[in-house]
Write a structure and sequence with these properties.
By secondary structure, this protein is of the alpha/beta class. The protein has helices spanning 2-9, 24-37, 47-55, 70-84, 104-117, 132-146, 160-163, 188-194, and strands at residues 14-16, 40-44, 57-58, 67-68, 90-97, 122-126, 150-156, 204-210. Helix 4 (70-84) crosses helix 5 (104-117).
Length: 211
Amino acid sequence: MARYTEIADAGFTFVVSGNYADDGNIIGQMLSVADQTGLKVLVSDDTQVRNMTRWFTISDDRSVPMSITTADARELFQRALDAYGPHKSLAGFNLFDEPWDGIFGSLGKAFDVARTLAPQLLPYANLLPGNGPSYDTYVNNYIAATKPALLSFDRYIRSWPAARTPDISTTGPVSGSPGWPTTCRPGPTFRHWLTTATAPRPRRICCGRST
């Protein structure tokens, strides 16, 4: 409770499960504490959701290997809703962390299932990091398949001293450049890079940082 109160007092509004908080009982405890502290929770790594998105392909073509039907996917997602839905802190579900291009079709179906069964919740995925034309294609393909409400992607910090350099907020997201670790900062080049995608625009864009 004290830690979640500290997080809320610092001005943060939500937390994400995962990173070993992936057991149903642990997730339930997270939600209970968040209920009391005013935080919202994006549930990540729930077993039912992982079965729907990561371990199986959603397809009504029964010849597709390792596949489940749309009805199966709805049942799996409903189980997750039944487990966590009573909590007022539930904000949505992280359906996939760092998906690759080849699964966007099935992931898009998972997004559709989530929107249909729980339109008040956020279906969410966090993209791989990257740069350049091939990454633009990757992001555009994801947007076209899932029609996300927001874009979220990793940007791995490699050098904290470089991250503290005063002038890096204007550098572009070029892998290996001095400013590369801090492209989440709102420098002009970064803002320009975010506008290069040509698919229908999500309403919000966020960036994850990992150390």
